[in-house]
Amino acid sequence: MAITATRIADVVYDAARRHYYAAVEFFAPGLPVPLRVGVTLPAAPTISHTHLVRGLVHAAERQILRP
Fold first, then answer.
1. Sign for the pseudo-dihedral over CA of 62, 58, 14, 22
2. Cα separations (Å) of 4 from 17, 19, 51?
3. 22-57: buried (b, 16+ CB within 10 Å) or exposed (e) per residue?
4. Model confidence over 49-64: pLDDT tens digits?
5. Quick check: 21 pLDDT over 80?
6. Do residues 34 and 14 make contact, with C-beta atoms less than 8 angstroms apart?
7. Are 57 and 35 in contact (CB under 8 A)?
8. Residue 36 to residues 18, 47, 66: CA-CA distances in angstroms?
9. Where do the H-state alpha helices sit in 1-67?
10. Which of 13, 15, 28, 34 has a C-alpha 20 to 30 A away from that of 60?
11. Residue 18 burial (C-beta neighbours within 10 Å; 0-12, 13-18, 19+)
């Protein structure tokens, strides 16, 4: 099992489109630089921090694992 760390590098909210745009970074042994993935998450501005982070990380994981 690989040990990884995750960081939300940048987050921007677009009020007109009601979307969060973020850069999520994954760190893992053997990677010389973090893997940075740009994601878009449709959500209201009142979403809790926990749900926002969980949604951004899951969206990034889906993009990485997409065939």
1. negative
2. 32, 27, 20
3. bbbbbeeeeeeebeebebebeeeeeeeeeebbebbb
4. 999 999 999 999 999 8
5. yes
6. no
7. no
8. 23, 23, 15
9. 49-65
10. 15
11. exposed
CA distance 12 to 39: 11
Query: How many angstroms from the chain centroid is the CA of residue 35?
Result: 11
Number of domains in the chain: 1
pTM exceeding the 0.90 threshold for the entire prediction: no
Measured CA to CA in angstroms, residue 2 lies from 33, 44, 61 at distances of: 16, 34, 15
Per cent of the chain over pLDDT 90 is: 82
Distance CA 30, CA 23 (A): 21
Question: Which residues form the domain of 52?
Answer: 5-65
57: tokens are 């990380």
